[in-house]
Amino acid sequence: MTGCLAIALLFAGRANAQTYAEVEKTTSETPWSIEITSGNLVNGFNWGTASLRGRYFISDKLGIRLQLGLGDGSGKPMTDKNNYYENADGTGGVGTEKISRSAVSLQIGAEYHFIGTKKLDPYAALGIDFGFGGQKSEGDKVDPVLSAYNKDYKYNGAGKYSSMGGTLALGADFYFVENVFIGLEAGLGFHALSFKDAESEVTITGIPPIKNVTPAYKRNHLGTHAVVRLGWRF
To answer: Is the pLDDT of residue 22 over 90?
Structure first.
């Protein structure tokens, strides 16, 4: 984040804006680009899975962008499988738990591009984010309350959520060959998440199934993100 800010401040003070040809393409002024963003998300809105982003420049300095991605920023994998053993040394019976997660995020935003060089193009960005997702869990021979092996237990549960928020970011594109760039982007995002009622059912040997409902609730998330980007201008 500090590095991106330093680059932006370095080039923002120069007097004249550069054209598409000087920064982003040497043969045409076609204002489209498409890119894949990925990498380590510190606390951001997306998981480490890749996102797809398209950009359109309405002027030399101003571009609009649309991004589609997977994940909710929790850093958790889309599928988890956990084993719980009867004995501490891993012997005896084994209980299994499987968790499946799904999430989609959409961002609509704009970028302001500062003065750069023929290869370097720094910018600041603002995005409005939307998202939705859910989680399903299944357990066999696992007590869901204690998260421990119990041969008499079996359970399943599911819940969904939606989110809305915004992101501020600084980044830079570096054109290492004609029309192809690698970039970095770091920023800060705020998102409000709304979780719907979550339902679960626990079956214990000899007892009728027990159904539980976790009431809907809301949670706010403030976090940073940092991504690596690979793109093509056409």
So the answer is: no
Q: Per-residue pLDDT tens for 198-230?
A: 999 999 999 999 999 999 999 998 988 888 999
What is the identity of the amino acid at 93?
G
Question: Which stretch of DSSP H or E encloses residue 233?
Answer: strand 217-233
What are the backbone angles phi and psi of residue 6, rounded to the nearest 5°? -60, -40
pTM score, whole prediction: 0.73
Whose CA is closest to 169, among 188, 190, 191? Answer: 188
Burial of 56 (0-12, 13-18, 19+ CB in 10 A): exposed
DSSP letter at 13 equals: T
* Nearest C-alpha neighbor of 189 from the set 112, 125, 110, 118: 125
Rounded-to-10 torsion of CA 45, 51, 52, 53: 40
